Amino acid sequence: xxxxSEKLFGSGLSRLGVKRMIPxxxxxxxxxxxLELEENSDTKHEYFHGxxxxxxxxxxxxxxxxFNISRELGNQIKKTPCMGFGNxxxxxxxxxxxxxxxxxxxxxxxxxxxxxxxxxxNPVLIMEILxxxxxxxDRGDKFQYYQSIDSLKEYILVSQHKCxxxxxxxNKENHTxxxxxxxxxxxxxxxxxxxxxxxxxxxYYRVDFDTL
Length: 212
Description:
Layout: E1 5-7, H1 31-40, E2 45-48, E3 51-55, H2 60-77, E4 82-85, E5 90-94, E6 97-99, E7 103-107, E8 112-113, E9 116-120, E10 125-130, H3 135-139, H4 141-147, E11 154-159, E12 165-170, E13 177-182, E14 188-191, E15 196-199, H5 200-203
Parallel strand pairs: 5-9, 10-11
Antiparallel strand pairs: 1-3, 2-3, 2-6, 4-7, 5-6, 7-10, 8-9, 11-12, 12-13, 14-15
Domain Putative restriction endonuclease: 32-193
Protein name: Putative restriction endonuclease domain-containing protein
């Protein structure tokens, strides 16, 4: 997730390992109600199966890593058919799932829904910076949700607590995903979906793992 998240309506957040907010009178939301909330709210929310999660502020390492990746990746795709977006870009997975990835890239014909102008539907690359409260979700259910996006070619997980980048690349022939780990600062992440190379030394530039 973009930032540590909390459920806005209802209870049962133990699966995400985050603090519970006080349950509100309204427990479920329809997609239309969620989109209306987003249009009128200063806080971003992710939406899964009628449940809404407020996105709260990120820690220092998260912000540094996000900026480093955006800078390096943005420079490389500047003159290509691809366009990158930060964590304010909403992505629609399907009718009852909306998310805000940390970094997302779409290429060629970049498609937004006509009735939801801020909802991107054809990303080729999604990157998430892991936090303690969201790592299980980002690795599990959320990755499964992302796999249903036909255009998605690559999913990247970046640790903010240690030097570790994990890459999942879709195999078009059998719809499996190839996993590669990059645990060393002298390695380079090769993004197959957008033909870019990101040295881990740049991803973790000025990141102090002893302070979060």
